[in-house]
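Hey, resending since the last one bounced:
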Amino acid sequence: MARHTFIRNTTSYWVWLGLALVVLLADQFTKVLMVSAYQLGEGFPVTSFFNIVRVHNEGAAFSFLATAGGWQRWFFTGLGVVATIAMVWMLKKHPGQKLFGFAIACILGGAVGNVIDRVLYGYVVDFLDFYYAGIHFPAFNIADSGITVGAACLILDEVLRVRRGN
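The structure tokens again:
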């Protein structure tokens, strides 16, 4: 019985790492397309509320610390590496928790995608640009989407865990 549980949990661990890899590959593929096809600030309208436009973010979420002088590149890279190690450990420790594993895998894929950008370019490549009724949301990318979906799922997982009384 214990061997079966070990195999099931190990398999789940690899499934979560596979999902993280899918998020990472989708993110990097779309960024390579943007970097190879467009210069900074170039893009095209898709709808009346959405553009594809190449933007560089040297900071964190919503360009936090973008003008800090350059040290933030290595700070956020280091933070991303530490977070990656922690998330891989969490997936290894709790592979059977489906919603938790999905959430961490999405965040992991996104975090690694943005770390790769910081190392390669010194900034994160963003390109999804939404706006409506004079409100312009900061541009983002597939990695940011994975992180956001993962964070929402982590919150949901915690709410459900508390409701179950665990």
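The longest strand covers residues 124-132.

Sorry for the duplicate.
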